[in-house]
Structures are given as C-alpha cells and as structure tokens.
Structure prediction request, 454 residues.
Amino acid sequence: MSAARPCGGPRTLAGLFAWHLEKAAVRQTPYKFVRLCRAARGRSITFQYFNFLKRMYVTQHNRDLSQRAKPKSDSVAPPFHESQQLDQEKTVMHKIRPISPVHQPSSETSTGNELREMTSAAEVEGSVSSVKAGSKEERQWREMKLQLDDLPGILARLSKIKLTALVVSTASAGFAMAPVPFDLTCFLLASLGTGLASCAANSINQFFEVPFDSNMNRTKNRPLVRGQISPLLAVCFAASCGVPGIALLTLGVNPLTGALGAFNIFLYTCCYTPMKRMSIANTWVGAVVGAIPPVMGWTAATGSLDAGAVLLGGILYSWQFPHFNALSWGLREDYSRGGYCMMSVTHPGLCRRVALRHCLALIGLSTVAPVLDITTWTFPIISLPINLYISYLGFRFYRDADRSSSRKLFFCSLWHLPLLLLVMFTCKKPFLEKEEKGDLLSGNHGRALKIRLP
Prediction:
C-alpha cells in the first residue's frame, strides 16, 4: 500500500487538473457563444458576399469554366495563313459558353444579372478581337489598283489644281493690264502654257517631298504619299505637262515668255523645294516664283519687259508674304514635324514683322501705278480701304501673334488679291489715250526734225 500511494498521487492530481479545465471551459462556453454572435451581427452576410460564395462554388464544381491551355497544332502552312489561323483560334478562345443553372438558394434576378454581365463581357471581348483583326489587316501590305475613273482627280491633286488656277489668273491679269490691243488667240495660248508649266512644277515638287509630306497632317493624303499613283507615272505626267507647256509659250507666244516659264519651273523645283529644309530664305525665293506669272502675262502681250511688268510682279511679291506667313503660323507644328525650315518655326518675330512690312508695301505699290502711267489716279484712292484693312490685320497679327489673328489675315489675303487686281483693271488707263500721246510725241519730234533740216 505504501508503494501504490506515490503512483496514485500524481494520477489524482492530473485528474483534478483536467476536471478543473473542463469546468472552466464549460463556464466560458456561453461567453464564447455570445462573442461569436456579436461578431456575426457586426459582420452580417451581404448580397455581394453571398454572390461571391456562389461564384466560388460554381467554379469549384464546374470544371468546364477552368482555364485550360490549348496545345498548338503543328502546321505546314505558310506564315501568312498561320497568322490567320492563330487569329481565328484566339477569337474562338474568347468565346464563353453559357453556364448551366446551379440550384442555389439565390434569387432569380441575381442569376439573370450574372448572365447579362457574362454575355456583355463576351460581346466586348469579341468586338475587341474583331478590332484587333481589322487593325492587323490594315497594317498588312495591299496592292493599290489604279482605276481610270479616279485618275483625273488624282492628277488634279498631284498638280495642285487650285494653286494652278491662281497662277493662271495672275498671268491673265498681267496680260489684261498690258497697254496693247487684246489678242484672244495669244491670251489662250499664254494661259494654257502657263497652266501646263505650273502643273509640271507642282508635280515635281510633290515627287521630291514624299518622305517629308508623310509626316505632316496637311500633306499626308497626297497621291504619292498614299500610294495612289506610282512615282514613275508622276514624273511622266510632269514631263508631259512641262515640255508642251514651255514649247507652247516659246513657239506660240514669244521666246521671252517661254524662257520665263522654264526659269520659273527651275526656280520652284531646284531652288525653292530643297531650300525649304535648309534656310528661311526659301520664303523669299518662293515669293519670286509667285511674282513671275503676271510678268509672263505682260510679256506675252507686249513681248518686252516694261515698268508695268515689274510693278505687277512687285504687287504679287509683296502680297505673298502676309498670305504665306499667316498660313505657316497655324502650321508650325506640321512644318517642324516635317523638317521644314520656316520663319514661323525658327524666327517667329521676323515672320510677323515681314508680314506687316509687305502689307504696308502694297499701299506704296498701288500709289506708284499712276506714276508709271499704268492706271489713273483713282486706283490708289479706291484701293486704299482694302490695303488699309489688310495692313490693320497685319498689325493685329504682329501684335497678338495668335491663331485667330493669323487666320483672319490669311482669309483676308484670299479675297484681297482678286479685288485689288479687279480694281486695277477697272482703273487702267485707256489704250487710245496712250496712243494719242505717243502720236503727239512722235509728231513733235518730227516737227523738230523738220525745223532742223535746211
């Protein structure tokens, strides 16, 4: 008995300790239950949490919804067809099959909303895949087929038909202002030759500037940039316009007019075009190019370079600076992106000063016209309001230097030149009066010779 007591003593103590713990756990059970109820009350199950549990259950028990890697099939097709097959496989993988309804204690509205969300997601993914496929097709090389019905419009844009029409109109104004009788045949030949020469110069200009025009928003839709016409066809069109045009001016009108036309093509294509990427002096060279057509009209009518031809060329020379400087001010981003060296980009202050300076020069040139016996003295008076208005807009452009003032000056220059030339033509000094003065001078000279003779 004495040996059993030491063994029974520790067992008794262990049993008492376990009984104490069970009694404490039983006592703490109500407190734990209350605490759990309070926590559950604070974190009540919401509809979103129930929806999340339901989705988890569906994805765990539906193996069809799990993502599976699709093995790549070994194909012997060429790369182009292989890329098309991959695009089709991608579009098929994006499709989502409808989910079979699972019996859950959820409302029918929640399942309906889920189905709508999944179908909308499938439609969005399908549209995205179709957009990607369309963009890939647009980036692929395609053969451009030239149709004969589109050829006249393409050639008209290649030759800058609006600019050519302006060149022909200024040459016609120079022909009409010449102090000689009007010859319709010579006028038509001179206008046709000038128009052909302008088409040739513009086509060669676009041929040289294809890589630079592609970087500008204003010129990125030109025919050569878009590939609507081949460079060889553009060069052939320029040659077919330039050679007959110069031959027509030389043989049908006079050699002086033909030489001026050939010099203008050379100046525009070989001097002005490369200088646009080298120096701001290109603006002055381009102004000379624009001043030659009225001189050609004058020489076509008279056969000589007179003071009137120089005056008409000076008016066109000065008019181009407010016209082009105002235009280039709104295209500074395009010109800098295309790599062109323009005053509006590199020397903005000089651009505004030159525009204002030549607006004021138009007033002085209009005053010189009656002094040179080209118009009557009513021309500087009648043309003063429009010259003052364009000078005011030039001053606004010089002072404000914003897009609004440059746009107003540019649109004013579009109607200012035709109106100024029309007023100049209406105030032209009559040819009979000049002939009478010439006869009087020749008669006085003959009388003086008679007096001197014995």
Notes: Residues 259 and 270 are 16 Å apart (CA to CA). Confidence is low (pLDDT under 50) at residues 1-7, 79-83, 100-109, 440-454. The chain is about 75% helix and 0% strand. The radius of gyration is 44 Å.
